[in-house]
Design brief:
Length: about 220
């Protein structure tokens, strides 16, 4: 990993905004404007030779590092990482909210690398790496569908998991847990129709603490 990091610093120089080596995994961060140039070097330089894109995903850092509920005590309100119907988080334009992460593999050198790039703008946009690694095609469609990240130059950027008429991006942390609409088959019209969502979010957090003698202190009396 140290050898790989030195090679990356020599070939990419100031284009590496940050780097981190932790738990045997090397991560470098680059600006979105440099992603095409950096990925071409990572693929074509013989000392690097990252010829395979193993994975590409989006990340929403809107509420990153914020605790939703305390685990030391029971809660009457339950867990709610997302938001309820019609309630949205009022900070959609925070700096460095969205990022794209690329997981690369060098078959020649048997080494792996993670590349992260923060994207900005409304909507957030970054260059597609499909011309560099063809396998990025469906991954980028997935990140677009779930996070709303646009990949400039993608040959066919359409939704891949949700319906083509779907509105919104489900993995954004400001997207309502219940969604906006639901679909059902209408026998009279003979087709699938949209209607306002009718389901209600269920709280799946235990609301009672049961007795467990493994955690009782000597001499404690819990009564009947």
């Amino acid at each position: 990993m140290d050898t790989l990091l030195n090679d990356l610093r020599q070939r990419l120089g100031a284009k590496i905004v940050n780097d981190k080596l932790e738990t045997g995994q090397l991560t470098i961060e680059v600006n979105a404007a440099d992603i095409t140039e950096v990925c071409l070097v990572l693929r074509d330089d013989e000392a690097l030779a990252f010829n395979q894109l193993s994975d590409l995903c989006g990340i929403d850092y809107l509420s990153y590092g914020k605790a939703d509920w305390e685990t030391q005590e029971t809660t009457r309100t339950g867990f709610s990482r997302g938001v309820s119907q019609g309630v949205y988080i009022d900070t959609p334009d925070i700096e460095d909210r969205f990022a794209v992460v690329y997981h690369l593999l060098s078959l020649k050198h048997n080494r792996r690398l993670r590349v992260r790039s923060f994207v900005s703008g409304q909507p957030p946009k970054i260059a597609s790496v499909t011309p560099i690694w063809a396998g990025a095609n469906w991954f980028e469609r997935e990140a677009f569908d779930l996070f709303g990240i646009l990949f400039d130059g993608h040959p066919d950027l359409r939704r891949i998991l949700t319906d083509y008429g779907f509105r919104g991006h489900p993995f954004r942390k400001d997207f309502p847990l219940e969604g906006n609409v639901e679909v059902r088959y209408d026998s009279e019209e003979g087709r699938v129709v949209y209607q306002p969502v009718s389901i209600k979010n269920r709280v799946l957090v235990p609301k009672t603490i049961r007795r467990d003698n493994r955690y009782e202190r000597p001499g404690e009396n819990h009564g009947g």
